[in-house]
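Crash report, auto-generated. Payload:
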Amino acid sequence: MTQVRDHTAPRRRGRVPAALLVPAGLGLLFLVLPLAGLVIRAPWTTLPQRLTEPGALTALRLSVQTATLATVLCLLLGVPLAWMLARVEFPGRRLVRALVTVPLVLPPVVGGVALLLVFGRRGLLGGWLDATFGITLPFTTAGVVLAESFVAMPFLVIAVEGALRAADHRYEEAAATLGASRWTTFTHVTLPLVAPGLAAGAVLCWARALGEFGATITFAGNYPGRTQTMPLAVYLALETDLESAIVLSLVLLVVSVGILVALRDRWMTSA
Amino acid sequence: MSGRATRTVVAVLVAALTVTGCGAGDDRASGGAGDGRVTGAVTVFAAASLTESFTRIGKDFEAANPGSTVTLNFAGSSALANQINQGAPADVFASAAPANMTTVTEAGNADGAPNVFARNQLVIAVPRGNPRQVTGLADLSRPGVKVALCANQVPCGAAARTALDSAGVALTPVTLEQDVKGALAKVKLGEVDAALVYRTDARAAHADVTGVEFPESARAVNDYPILALKDAPNPTGARAFVAYVRSTPAQAVLAEAGFQTP
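Recovered output after restart:
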């Protein structure tokens, strides 16, 4: 953990070279200007009444809930997967690592169709789930969580795997020589060791899940209160009312930035 | 870009006429815009439901006007209207609903008044063979029948709402899709038992989908207006394309796709 601090602390003082400062500034402008555009075009006078519209709050609540559940699911499945990739030698590991990143390059809409082909009513598993347990996932809130997890999990796996590879193996080896089982080592040594990377991955995963659109509307559809998350509400508002879409986007932005800053202060610097 | 190209063509034409007295050298110049013929690129922004028919009409237009190329941009009508009002370099706008056309005319971006060139009606799209034996809107409210509608914000959703209200049918869809192709895809994939889509969309997907006609759709007919845009980079091409869409051959293509023609 001290290593992490060393990386972030400014070690060398002196002038920042212009060759780095100028592109850095341009990069920042490029990212921030569109946000400034949203803020400038926001209809500030009608903002309060637009914000308290029940539809907006319902979509926001659903977004935060599903993104959080998706992050939990990604942690439960993704951390062990990252550990396997970083710590266990097995044949085809490189292929598995490549497969894990597929949702990153797949257009989310295609991801949604792929989910339907597996978990849909006529899907490979969906038909069986329905016949055996009476579970149908498309058009349900659980379906939203599944779609968001599919798209967001690679962010978590990659972040955690990177943290595991960077972590010092000797602590784990010491635990093993002292007689700790692999499970005990994982829970008592490895996980605390990579906690900052884990937190960063979880935050990235949550943020990606919060903004998810394509896979969600394709797999879970769009119905207010059940599957209409904030990005879906924004997209539909764009059809009729640009200002309403801007307000909804700003709300999503403020809430997500607020949560991310709060988490960062709490976990990522003190961990 | 194409505006500049047109000007270049005109400049070459003028130069050629001045120097040689006749257009002996340059093919494009001799067939140029001076005599009212259409050359260069014509950029058409058209509603997603026109994809199949306008692709064909665009090719026919190119064949009828050698030297012209038609570039088609298909998307939801409201997205297209937004792009046009934000300054997208389009020559022609064909909308699936008058409301989105009004957005463009009210912003002062129209060259003349819009003309209705086609009408579309809703049908009930069911999986091919109609396994749930849906014969009318009332069947959609049966328990266990999953229905996809378009969201109220898009034209096919508004039309569906009107049709259902006039039939006195109350139903809870499982999803409100962002456009008509989304609703149709849910039927194709077998995730829903029925969806209200345009007759043209059901016809284009006839390999997977059967369209069931119902009488109340006559009360929710969608008009498709078209116009040339004021800031068109190729104004001659824009007007010619609008006129072509209303000509007999183009209207036949639209009718074949399932549109009603005015």
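Post-recovery validation: Chain B touches chain A at residues 76, 78-79, 82, 146, 148, 151, 153-154, 173-178, 182, 185-186, 189-191 (CB under 8 Å).
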